[in-house]
Write a structure and sequence with these properties.
The complex is a heterodimer. Chain A is mostly helical. Helix content of chain A is 55%, strand content 0%. In chain A, helix 1 crosses helix 3 and helix 1 crosses helix 4. The chains are: A mainly alpha, B alpha+beta. At the A-B interface, helix 3 of A face helix 5 and helix 7 of B.
């Protein structure tokens, strides 16, 4: 399980995204742009990302928090508020 | 008995053998995956349709094999020689030899009795011979067991055999899609219907469910729609089945193919069996399992040949409407568009409602617009009563 500080959560999030989108380049990923478009992920992929994230961090993302996961920045902010 | 390489789609000619999952002397049960082959649609686990004991394995990794090639010899259990418990329609063992039904090609097996004697030929050979007006019975087959191959037909016609297509990879996938869709547009007189369905109730119900349950039990709207499609098909069975050898064979169950876009490009539509008989939770689990394996290239042969209808959902990519091209030998495809808020008139008032444009492309050889309209109306009604799904 990754660390629960910002770097650890970011690492867990990127690794979860990479499980579903293996071609993801963390350097090219824009943290302030919609993830779904950048990575071409649909709602099924998104569910798989959340399952991977739960496995890696123990944090379960409720459906109400989905809007925060539009961008990497938004997701990190939400995750940090949980720890 | 011989275990042969089945056709895993109307336009599959050959495959590259990858590996055995069983050993000589091992007992195998009907439906068990016994080997892996690489096809135009990726790596596929091939299931066996007869219980018995493996005697000899012939296929070796890396070998390129035509459809119908003998992969292994099996000592079949005596009792499986009897017909399946639920005899499928028209005496065609749709489940046990689904690949045969898909292609209409009797392979070397003992259970095709009752069908008229036909020369054994690959699907593309049969099609090409028909195009050229050649009688297959007059051709010498050079394939395994004397099967007439496409090359045999081309030779007989005096035409040069086309260059062999790559067996796997993106180019092969594109070729497979092109072949199936060209055949569809050539053979199937499509008609198209569209219907706007208000989905507020279904979405509210799903969102309420998802709020109160753990991540792994959450539903996707696609699962809700699949269930509604399957139930609506019970009312209009002429949209569910295969059109083979000039006749419609109703599906012996409602096996819904789900069009899946692959990350490397390309499209595949593996099926979930008996969707109308699965609970919503069970359907969601199957869907997740299927989508995951489709994207990882771990599908099973029966999943490619069993679907009796396909659902395609391009709505997530932002298009309002998708009119699908029917996947032969199926006779209909349902298209689910984007769910978007739209002005809607309810009880004389204009309100904002969440609406999905739903389409049906269906085969006019089997059904008419009236029946197609009935299906869409029924689908609409089911989505207005999500608790009952």
């Amino acid at each position: 399980m990754s660390g629960r500080d910002e770097a650890g959560l970011r690492e867990a999030l990127v690794a979860s995204l990479q499980e579903v989108a293996p071609e993801l380049d963390p350097v090219a990923l824009r943290a302030d742009r919609p993830l779904r478009q950048q990575l071409d992920i649909d709602s099924f992929d998104f569910l798989r990302v959340l399952e991977a994230l739960q496995r890696r961090t123990g944090i379960e993302v409720p459906e109400a928090a989905y809007p925060a996961f539009d961008t990497l920045d938004g997701a990190l902010t939400w995750l940090l508020a949980q720890v | 008995m011989d275990f042969t390489l089945p056709s895993l789609g109307a336009d599959m000619e050959s495959a590259t053998f990858v590996q055995w999952l069983v050993e000589p002397g091992q007992r195998v049960a009907r439906g068990q995956p016994v080997c892996v082959v690489e096809t135009q649609k990726g790596a596929i686990e091939v299931e066996i349709w007869q219980s018995g004991t493996v005697r000899e394995l012939f296929a070796t990794p890396g070998a390129s094999l035509p459809v119908g090639a003998v992969l292994a010899r099996l000592e079949a259990d005596a009792e499986v020689e009897s017909p399946p418990a639920t005899p499928p329609v028209a005496g065609a063992p749709l489940v046990s030899i689904a690949p045969n039904v898909v292609t209409g090609v009797p392979f070397a097996r003992g259970d095709s009795a009752g069908e008229p004697a036909r020369p054994r030929a690959s699907p593309s050979a049969r099609r090409r011979a028909a195009e050229l007006g050649l009688d297959l019975a007059g051709l010498a087959g050079t394939g395994p067991g004397g099967v007439v191959s496409l090359a045999d037909v081309e030779r007989a016609a005096g035409a040069p055999a086309p260059a062999a297509l790559p067996v796997s990879g993106p180019q092969a996938m594109r070729a497979a899609i092109a072949a199936a869709m060209t055949r569809s547009k050539r053979e199937i007189p499509h008609y198209y219907l569209g219907h706007h369905i208000r989905v507020d109730r279904a979405l509210d119900w799903m969102e309420h469910h998802n709020r109160s349950c753990p991540l792994e039990e959450r539903l996707l709207f696609a699962a809700v729609c699949l269930r509604a499609v399957a139930l609506a098909l019970r009312e209009v069975p002429e949209l569910n089945g295969h059109h083979v050898d000039g006749a419609f064979r109703p599906g012996e169950g409602i096996h819904v193919g789900v069009a899946v876009a692959l990350r490397g490009g390309g499209l595949i539509a593996p099926g979930i069996r008996d969707v109308d008989r699965l609970s919503m939770g069970a359907l969601m689990s199957r869907l997740k399992d299927l989508l995951g394996r489709a994207r990882d290239g771990q599908l099973r042969s029966s999943e490619l040949t069993s679907p009796t209808i396909t659902v395609t959902s391009l709505g997530e990519l932002g298009v309002d409407t998708v009119y699908g091209v029917i996947h032969p030998p199926q006779v209909a495809i349902v298209g689910l568009g984007r769910v978007a808020p739209q002005p809607w008139v309810a009880a004389g008032q204009v309100i904002a409602a969440r609406v999905m444009h739903t389409t049906l492309s269906a085969d006019h050889r089997v059904s008419d617009g009236l029946r197609g309209a009935r299906f869409l109306a029924h689908l609409d009604a089911l989505l207005q009563d999500p608790e009952a799904l």
